[in-house]
Amino acid sequence: MSVESPLDPSVVRWSVPPEERGGRPVLLLLHGYGSDEHDLFGLVPYLPEAFVIASLRAPLSPPWPMPGASWYPIEGLDGRDPDAVTRAAEAVLAWIHDAVGDAPVGLLGFSQGGAVALQTLRADPDAVQFAVVLAGYAAGGELPGDAVLGERRPPVFWGRGAADDVIPTPLVDATSQWLPAHSDLRGRVYPGLTHSISQDELDDVRAFLDERLADRAGTDAS
């Protein structure tokens, strides 16, 4: 991809300095609406150290007085435009091309960031190996990569709270149908959890990421 990414490289938070990144898989963290690159970076101690972790800041500013940044506009709970989600995914893909190159990449996103993580996988299945979607959803519409995903079934973890009332029910229902047809889905609904992340969910995410590292080790050994 030759398009310049609108994501600001100067605000990316990395888990390790440049000299320690070579030859290691990269995990990108995509925050939720009204947050920034500092939010999900707090998860780093709970994630496998084998990954180089980069936490990105979304390119848009939500309407005042909402703080932080956003990946795409939200006009009311039902105003999530799939085309806007795709534009955010294209910005992430351009950043991957510029900053990561050929290193294996996985995505972990919360809420808006989870939707962008899935959309990035859909937009370019060759650029992303797996996705972790926390309290997120699959945007509607069709993308060129959907047919590829239906054949490859890349690993996806989808976690959400049973008491989460932020993501509209129709989007949750549509995601429940879309993901099994386009991924090797690992998912769990957490009783009592609202629009947030629990320790049980972090434990499941860690296990999922450890599996991805084991898959990589098996591929390298073969």
TrEMBL record:
InterPro entries assigned to the protein according to its UniProt record, in alphabetical order = AB_hydrolase_fold, LYPA1-2/EST-like, PLipase/COase/thioEstase
One matching Pfam family, short form?
Abhydrolase_2
Q: Provide the alphabetized UniProt keywords.
A: Hydrolase
Domain of life of the organism encoding this protein: Bacteria
Record flagged with keyword Hydrolase: yes
Q: Record's SUPFAM superfamilies?
A: alpha/beta-Hydrolases (SSF53474)
Q: Which Gene3D superfamilies match?
A: alpha/beta hydrolase
Task: Give an example GO molecular function.
Answer: hydrolase activity
Residue intervals of the Phospholipase/carboxylesterase/thioesterase domain: 23-210
**Family assignment from sequence similarity:** Belongs to the AB hydrolase superfamily. AB hydrolase 2 family.
Name of the featured protein = Alpha/beta fold hydrolase
Lineage runs: Bacteria, Bacillati, Actinomycetota, Actinomycetes, Micrococcales
